Amino acid sequence: MSIILEAKKVSKYFGGLKAVDEVDMSINSGEIFGIIGPNGAGKTTFFNMCSGVYSLTRGGIWLSNENITGMRSERIANKGLARTFQNIQLFKFMSVMENVKIGFHVHTKTNVLNAILHTSTYRKDEQFVNRRALEIVEQVGLSPYKDTMAGNLSYGIQRRVEIARALALDPKVLLLDEPAAGMNPNETRDLMLFIKKLNKDGYTIVVIEHDMKFVMNTCDRILVLNFGKKICEGNPDHVKNDPLVQEAYFGKGLLTKEADT
Amino acid sequence: MNQLMNKVQKLWDEHKIVSMAVLFILLLTVPSVFPKNYIMGIICRILLYILLAGGLNVINGYSSQFCIGYAGFFCIGAYAEAILSLKAGMNFWILLPISGIITAIFGLLIALPTLRLSGKYLSIVTLGFSEIIRLTVLNWNGLTGGPMGIKGIAVPSLFGLEFKSAIQYYYIFLFLVILFVFATSRVIKSRIGRAWMSIREDELAAKSLGVEASKYKAMNFMYGAFWAGIAGAAYAPYTRYIDPTFFTLDEGFNILAMVIVGGMGTMVGPIAGSIVINIVTELLRPISEYRMVVYAILIIGMMWLRPQGLFGATQSILSGGKIMKKSDRGKKKGREAA
């Protein structure tokens, strides 16, 4: 197994606030990696640094041994890192197919002249985009909705569209920011199976999630953040039994008080 | 309105080649239907403004960079043609693309420093740019003739045929409009158009999908500016005399009004806007400057009742961010009836 995404001593300070402080992470290709932590632990900030939305205060990030520190997000997407957003950022007024088609941007080459003259480059690109977009829509199970406007779909389906759009990039690593947020238990279970299936298809997936059942059942390894610092890393069982993790989630007051009295 | 549009659209799609041919022949026969120079003048104006409003619509409507100083680009195109044809004696047909390219370079020059600006800040910069161009033209006596303008611009000719009157010039404008609609509708349907629209709808998401937002915004500005240059180059020999008073901010607002009234983000929008505003202008000529009041009311009313314009992209962020489901619309009607 080779390391595909690596973060070394990554830090982000907003003025005096250490949102993310010296976090190390290495993700092997082909695994599902979970990042958890209480609210405000810096998970999304960490994601935003990986995908180039924020710049790093310190540290560095490598994508398959290539330094991507400080690159703009569109460059990073081009290198093969796709992401979804916590509060869905779909093109609400475009159909599902159009949403997915935009994901193919980095794989096509048409320029203005090609488009006006309908040259072979243009025709090849359009054929490729149409064919692959249909394939992906089918793969993700969105065929019935392919011509529906994305903004009109239900929450769970919108999540899927966002993932489908990211898959169009044919990414090496797929970052999912709270994919199960706001879903009912049935939708969450569907999503869980869906992510496992994607993983089996060969995608490396990094997922931020609050739903413990979801994380414990899907992820191979988990990283726990609290107040911007890494407090634990390992497989689900290890993380579950870690005293620091328990403290971060449940606090320690109650047990010691009982012991005192 | 929407239903009617859908019906027309459907009819058009079903018999595409036939309807295009019919439309083309109708357009060719326009000068024989209206042999008067006065009416042909108005029709030429409409066609000229279709070019301008269409070009502005590419910027404002498709990538949602709100440019209000479009008259600046128009000015550059017109002066480029006039100066090069007078001083270098170049042919009109060569000058058309050259003026377009010169204007596109100016478009790039203004796009580069403003890539990080959006919304009203970008608008203010374009406003300033338009004024800078006008003032430069007004004061650079040596090159542009200053307030005296440039007189006696050569009339274009083709195979010994001179385009002197509005009736003959109509065909040049028609040719350019057809070229514009043809090229732009193809660009819009391609990967580039998709990238522009993705930036309009959600720039963050577009970037996360690898769309180089700054590059495409600059390209968008250049494309829009290019057509303003072409329109300017066609306009200069049409009037045969240009001076800086043609290219004031009012002119920019006039073009903007056409885009807003007609509707942003569609190919039909600016065409409709140009027709409506130019006809209103002609009808209101007797009340002279008071017609500005009518424009203002028109724009305010439009923004209030139909923010996307007459034929604007209903299914886009331009329609005020509302998504109307079919079922909702049904319910609303039902409630109103009750």
From TrEMBL, chain A:
InterPro entries: AAA+_ATPase, ABC_AA/LPS_Transport, ABC_transporter-like_ATP-bd, BCA_ABC_TP_C, P-loop_NTPase
Gene Ontology biological-process annotations: D-alanine transmembrane transport; L-alanine transport; L-isoleucine import across plasma membrane; L-valine import across plasma membrane
One MF annotation (Gene Ontology) recorded for this entry: ATP hydrolysis activity
UniProt keyword Lipid biosynthesis, yes or no: no
Any single Gene Ontology cellular-component annotation: plasma membrane
Keyword ATP-binding found: yes
Signal peptide residues on this chain, from the entry's feature table: none
ABC transporter domain mapped to chain residues: 5-252
Gene3D superfamilies, alphabetized: P-loop containing nucleotide triphosphate hydrolases (3.40.50.300)
Record's protein name: ABC transporter ATP-binding protein
Biological classification of the source: Bacteria, Bacillati, Bacillota, Clostridia, Lachnospirales
From TrEMBL, chain B:
Cellular component GO terms held in the UniProt record: plasma membrane
Keyword Transmembrane: yes
Subcellular location as annotated: Cell membrane
Residue ranges of the TM segments: 17-34, 40-59, 66-86, 92-112, 121-140, 169-188, 218-235, 255-280, 292-311
Domain of life: Bacteria
GO molecular function, one term: branched-chain amino acid transmembrane transporter activity
Membrane topology note: Multi-pass membrane protein
Coiled-coil portions: none
Keywords: Cell membrane, Membrane, Transmembrane, Transmembrane helix
Protein name listed in UniProt: Branched-chain amino acid ABC transporter permease
Organism: Blautia liquoris
